[in-house]
Amino acid sequence: MRMRQPRLALRGITVGAIATAVVLAGAACSSNPSSGTSGSGSSSTINGAGSTFAAPMYQQWAGQYHAAHGTQINYQAIGSGGGISEFTQGVVDFGATDAPMTSTEQAAAQASQGSVVLHIPMIIGAVVLIYNEPGISGLKLDGPTLANIFQGNIKKWNDPAIKALNPGVSLPSDAIQPVFRADSSGTSFAFSSYLSAVSPTFASQIGASKTPAFSGTGATGSSGVAAAVQQTKGAIGYVEYGYAVQGHLTFATVKNASGQFVAPSTASTEAAAAAATFPTDVTHLTFSLNNSSASSAYPIVTPTYILIAQKPKNTASGKAVKAWLEWALSSAQQSEVTKLGYVPLPSQLITLDQAALKTVS
């Protein structure tokens, strides 16, 4: 297994209008519980942290909800692993993650919160492969080739495996420069879960993880990966679809389980969600959308979750978080998600979410 390279320093760089650290409703998220409802008992401010994948959507919803209801929602985009950790420690009122908590994380969170912890799916998005190689247009890739790229086994853009997927395309001999998430990331979990599903070698040597041992250079947050790829000729990295669109980044089409090369889009992401089967236990609403068998589905798709305690220690903050989530799950708000590159939840899943929130007391 190849060793990770040092984290790439990215100072003062944003892609489009998206920054790694997101501050919602005009106020920064503090790591001190006393600044929000966790310590004060006030329902006018709630604090959250976690997923950078979903941060643009939470930013928009928080601003709209603040304007309509007066509740200030502070959110720090620190990655899914950070969101799980801060929620478990009681630093924030809710966590945000694209990777379901492991059994160990779940046990720790429930012991700390003194309550069952719920995963509430909020939106669905695609993980796309962005690249910076001006000599390549309309790049096609498949899962095994991606696994070999991020394991460091495929080193050149004109490698025979890439040439076989792109007949007639003039591929340069430039070195491939993989860029991965250096922080604990739900996007990394979704991507490595997909690679594990399509590559037995990857599954046995690396596996699904929020911190997979990818070959290449690390960057912090989705915007950090996007910025690093923009700056580095020959680079390839993975981000949520909206980051690629907002940053006007070039991305690949990927071969799906039906053998079709499918470009990421809201339509191909929705095709994966439409073909899915969801759990019925509202206390365990976690599932995978990767590698869908639907012919029109993009193969790397994930839900993203909000973590809340079923019986919050702080009644006021719990009530405020619950109210915000119920509002965000309304048809009016779900209809807005495609504007940022996400896909709304299927109606069946919204019904399950609403049932889960009814158990929050």
Description:
The chain is α/β, with parallel strands linked by helices. The protein has two domains: 33-124 and 304-358, D-Maltodextrin-Binding Protein, domain 2 (3-Layer(aba) Sandwich), CATH 3.40.190.10; 126-272, 3-Layer(aba) Sandwich (D-Maltodextrin-Binding Protein, domain 2), CATH 3.40.190. It has helices at residues 37-40, 55-69, 80-89, 103-113, 143-150, 160-165, 186-198, 200-205, 221-231, 241-246, 266-274, 315-328, 331-334, 347-358, and strands spanning 45-50, 72-77, 94-97, 117-132, 140-141, 177-181, 217-219, 235-240, 253-255, 261-262, 301-309. Helix 3 runs parallel beside helix 4 (103-113).
Strand and helix map with partners:
Layout: H1 37-40, E1 45-50, H2 55-69, E2 72-77, H3 80-89, E3 94-97, H4 103-113, E4 117-132, E5 140-141, H5 143-150, H6 160-165, E6 177-181, H7 186-198, H8 200-205, E7 217-219, H9 221-231, E8 235-240, H10 241-246, E9 253-255, E10 261-262, H11 266-274, E11 301-309, H12 315-328, H13 331-334, H14 347-358
Parallel strand pairs: 1-2, 1-3, 5-9, 6-7, 6-8
Antiparallel strand pairs: 3-11, 4-8, 4-11, 9-10
